């Protein structure tokens, strides 16, 4: 989701850190207590706080002011976000990442949680509900976007397949014979496959478009009939046994089928450009005192 800026989480974390450290420095540490020492030379709490304020303070306070205004305007307009809406947005993200497993890996790699993500989503949905009534998308804009991005709305031919990858041809032939004798493909993948990313899922690759895999793999996967199992296929990665489970024909881009997706994209684009204007206008309605401005100016 393009509207939820990547640095927003960082800003919020910094805000919490500044506040938490401020409390710690004010109450927990004696005035002359060093927070660190280098060869005996102390770094005191005032130095730490000044650096944090100088580097992050202005952006953090501005973000907190914006959040307060959004919350206040949402209360005025009786805008609320339900758990159902939040869960639907999380489900959309899971789907866009290709499933719950990859989604959870994304959360872990960004050192965040579903609850933290929901906080960002709640703020995004609140802003969207406040701004959306003033956002207009014309048929001409929809058609122009479709014409300029037509290639992205078509669908290439796709195949859903699984594979078992091994290092040598002899092992591949052994697996092929076991499959011919009635062995279970998924179980053999778990036992033999050297593809750590798919073996525990029985070798499942999901759907992939023509041209995604290396040529040797692609050629077999897209010519093999559904429910058939290939002979060993040699690539630079080793020897593959491929099972084709389903196929999707190529689909040309269609404007009517794409309108919903295009509308969503244009709404997000306009929200990004109009949010700043909206916020500056709303600030005029509030008595804002920012004592940090005089500190960092």
Automatic annotation (TrEMBL):
Function in brief: Plays a major role in protein secretion by helping the post-translocational extracellular folding of several secreted proteins.
Residue ranges occupied by any PpiC domain in the UniProt entry: 156-246
Keyword Isomerase: yes
Main location group: membrane
Subcellular location: Cell membrane
Principal EC category: isomerase
A GO molecular-function descriptor: peptidyl-prolyl cis-trans isomerase activity
Protein's name according to its UniProt entry: Foldase protein PrsA
Pfam families according to UniProt: Rotamase_3, SurA_N_3
Catalysed reaction, written as an equation: [protein]-peptidylproline (omega=180) = [protein]-peptidylproline (omega=0)
HAMAP family listed in its UniProt record: Foldase_PrsA
EC number annotated for this UniProt entry: 5.2.1.8
Keyword Translocase: no
Family: Belongs to the PrsA family.
Topological relation to the membrane, as annotated: Lipid-anchor
């Amino acid at each position: 989701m393009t509207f939820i800026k990547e640095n927003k989480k960082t800003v919020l974390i910094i805000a919490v850190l500044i506040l938490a450290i401020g409390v710690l420095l004010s109450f927990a540490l004696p005035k002359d207590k060093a927070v660190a020492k280098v060869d005996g030379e102390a770094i005191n709490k005032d130095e730490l706080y000044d650096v944090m304020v100088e580097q992050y303070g202005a952006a953090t306070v501005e973000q907190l002011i914006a959040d307060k205004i959004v919350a206040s305007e949402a209360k005025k307009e009786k805008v609320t976000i339900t758990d159902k809406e939040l869960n639907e947005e999380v489900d959309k993200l899971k789907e866009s990442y290709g499933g719950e497993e990859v989604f959870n890996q994304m959360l872990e790699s960004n050192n965040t949680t579903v609850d933290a993500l929901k906080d960002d989503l709640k703020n995004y949905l609140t802003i969207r509900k406040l701004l959306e009534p003033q956002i207009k998308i014309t048929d001409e804009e929809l058609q122009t976007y479709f014409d300029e991005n037509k290639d992205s709305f078509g669908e290439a031919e796709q195949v859903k397949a699984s594979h078992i990858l091994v290092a040598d041809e002899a092992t591949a032939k052994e697996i092929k014979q076991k499959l011919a004798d009635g062995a279970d493909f998924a179980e053999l993948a778990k036992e033999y496959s050297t593809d750590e990313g798919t073996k525990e899922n029985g070798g499942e690759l999901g759907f992939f478009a023509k041209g995604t895999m290396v040529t040797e793999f692609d050629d077999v996967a897209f010519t093999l009939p559904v429910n058939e199992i290939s002979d060993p296929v040699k690539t630079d990665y080793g020897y593959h046994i491929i099972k084709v489970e389903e196929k999707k024909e190529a689909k040309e881009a269609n404007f009517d089928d794409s309108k919903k997706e295009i509308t969503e994209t244009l709404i997000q684009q306009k929200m990004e450009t109009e949010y700043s204007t909206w916020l500056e206008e709303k600030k005029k309605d509030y008595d804002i005192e920012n004592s940090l401005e005089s500190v960092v100016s």
